[in-house]
Specification:
With 601 residues, the chain is α+β, with helices and mostly antiparallel strands. The chain is built from 15 helices and 14 strands. This is histidine kinase.
Length: 601
């Protein structure tokens, strides 16, 4: 097969995964093996018929010959041996030993039968078998050479045939015409074989490309965040991807099941949408809500699309479901990008009047003498500095930040900062009974701005307070070493989060509560990334109670004066009332996520 036959697939995406040359060579070899075996079976059948004929002539008292019967037997044996023990191999341009044992043996045996057989039977049609074998499985030159050899043998047989002392013009003409026919058969058979081989290669390549495309489509649909359902005119769900199954039934959707949209009352509006789409033969869309008994209701955007009519089965309806909460989260993310650019511009504008206020307050502080006035100027200065820090934070968030803090940030003792922040937060929110603080980082230090560390912890504590039950020790703050890091854990006994909420926890403006801005966890993540720390969420158990845990891993300072080694003498717990044995249970609790346990003091 010409190698350029596969070049038409060079523009196909599938050609990037498989070499066209290798693919063409493999398909050509498989086609050759199939044809080879077919011809070998045909040779065996012909040899068996010839042997049966010679045996019949010999036993029937006719013109049979022991020599010709022996020749037919040897021919049959050779055909069997070649088929069973000779491994087919593609031909080269030069004839090989394999071709001599097939084409050569057949031509010689048929010529001997034609010349020495005393009966009136003509063996000339049998020469078509080696001609076809050479023309189809070999190059065109081999087919033409076989036809030429057969023609010469027939002419020679006609010239020296027994009973004809001189050449018989009619026999010679008949042999010439038969030879010409063999030449034509060789050319046509070779061209047809090439065409069939090309068509087979094209078909195999198209099938492989279709299978690969179907596999890619399957992966895309299975991983698509949009729910996709295929529904027939009777409302039967023929197929649904994981996103659609989660929207309809959560994890309880049976794999491969065919469900009726009318089977549940909460799906009735979807069934009505599909039926209306079938009725008017048009695509429809709407916003709807699916009521769930075991989880919050889900707001969806539903859209239908009809497929073309497929025979007697008719058309199918493809129903697309999109979670509106995720759509709104993407919109909020886009809004955040716009607000970030606007905030940076506003921050630049605020800096100039803020500097003027600070300078004017400094001049005023030099003039006033009374304590009351001094107190007022100090308040102005403190709030001006606070506004300046806010402006700096907005600008820092707006511009790209390095993964770690710069060298200007000094290491701070983690437990000391945590003790101060949790104490202030507890007094401010009056949750002394609900808060339990267990500090086990010892003298460990971290490179983290104290103000940013305070904001990180306050945001996590505020988030825990919104979801905690308010019972004693319903909120826990734990610090401890973890390899080369110091670990901060904020745990609360709130209920489990929805899967849709879990995926967007750290996105800006995403919140499961309308009263929350959705920026707290986003700011926590931004602050952690700035100092090379990591923040994550997990569902964990503490004191036989399930709860939500947000934990932060901060790289510990490795130095002789500020090593993160644990010192049992420095393990402290704030004197907030809690259940007996909290500290011991905290030390051995799974909140450490498999890390080495600490010895209780």
């Amino acid at each position: 097969m010409p190698s350029d036959d596969s070049s038409q697939f060079a523009t196909s995406w599938y050609s990037a995964f498989e070499s066209p040359v290798n693919r063409s060579r493999e398909q050509r070899h498989q086609a050759f093996v199939r044809l080879w075996r077919a011809f070998m079976r045909a040779r065996m059948v012909v040899a068996l018929v010839i042997l049966g004929l010679q045996v019949f002539l010999l036993l029937g008292g006719g013109n049979g010959s022991i020599g010709l019967t022996t020749l037919a037997s040897l021919h049959l044996l050779a055909c069997v041996l070649v088929m069973l023990f000779w491994r087919p191999a593609e031909h080269g341009r030069a004839p090989s030993l394999q071709w001599l044992f097939t084409i050569g043996v057949d031509v010689a045996v048929f010529a001997a039968l034609q010349y020495f057989d005393a009966s009136t039977i003509s063996f000339t049609p049998l020469f078509a078998l080696p001609v076809l074998l050479g023309a189809i499985l070999g190059p065109l030159l081999m087919g033409l050479g076989t036809a030429a050899a057969v023609t010469l043998l027939m002419l020679a047989e006609a010239w020296i045939a027994p009973g004809h002392g001189a050449a018989d013009a009619t026999r010679l003409l008949q042999a010439g015409l038969t030879g010409t026919g063999f030449f034509v058969v060789a050319v046509l058979a070779h061209q047809l074989a090439l065409r069939l081989a090309r068509e087979e290669a094209v078909s195999a390549s198209n099938q492989a490309a279709a299978r690969a495309q179907a596999a890619v489509n399957e992966v895309i649909i299975e991983t698509l965040g949009v729910g996709v359902l295929v529904i027939d005119p009777h409302g039967v769900v023929r197929n649904a991807n994981p996103a659609a199954r989660a929207m309809l039934m959560g994890e309880g959707f049976p794999a491969g099941a065919k469900l009726l949209l009318s089977a549940r009352p909460s799906w009735a509006h979807l069934a009505a949408l599909v039926q209306e789409s079938f009725a008017i033969d048009a695509a429809l869309e709407t916003e709807t809500t699916i009521d769930h008994a075991d989880r919050p209701n889900q707001r969806l955007h539903a859209r239908t699309q009809l497929t073309p009519v497929m025979g007697e089965r008719g058309a199918l309806c493809v129903l697309f479901l999109e979670d509106l909460r995720e759509v709104e989260a993407r919109v909020r993310t886009e809004k955040l990008a716009s607000m970030g650019r606007m905030s940076a511009a506003v921050a630049h504008e605020i800096r100039n009047p803020l500097s003027a206020i600070t300078q004017a307050n400094a001049l005023l502080d030099e003039e006033v003498k009374t304590p009351e006035h001094k107190r007022l100027t100090r308040m102005i200065d403190q709030n001006a500095q606070r506004l300046s820090r806010i402006v700096d934070d907005i600008l820092n968030v707006a511009r790209p930040q390095p993964n770690r803090a710069d060298g200007q940030t000094s290491p701070v003792p983690l437990d000391s900062v945590m003790r101060q922040v949790t104490g202030e937060w507890s007094r401010q929110n009056q949750v002394a009974q609900a808060l339990g603080v267990h500090l086990h980082a010892g003298q460990g230090q971290v490179v983290f701005d104290p103000e940013h560390l305070r904001r990180l912890l306050v945001n996590l504590l505020d988030n825990a307070l919104r979801h905690a039950s308010g019972k004693p020790a319903s909120i826990r703050v734990i610090t401890q070493p973890s390899g080369g890091h110091l670990r901060i854990s904020v745990w609360s006994d709130g209920g489990p989060l929805e899967a849709t909420v879990h995926k967007h926890l750290f996105e800006p403006f995403f919140s499961s509560e309308s009263r929350s801005s959705g920026l707290g966890l986003y700011i926590c993540r931004e602050l952690c990334e700035r100092y090379g720390a990591e923040i994550a969420y997990q569902r964990s158990r503490l004191d036989q109670r399930e709860g939500n845990e947000f934990f932060v891993l901060i790289p510990a300072v490795r130095s002789g004066s500020a090593a993160p080694a644990r010192d049992a003498g420095h393990q402290q717990s704030l004197p907030y009332p809690a259940e007996p044995g909290d500290l011991e249970r905290t030390i051995v609790d799974p909140l450490r996520s498999g890390r080495p346990p600490l010895a209780a003091s």
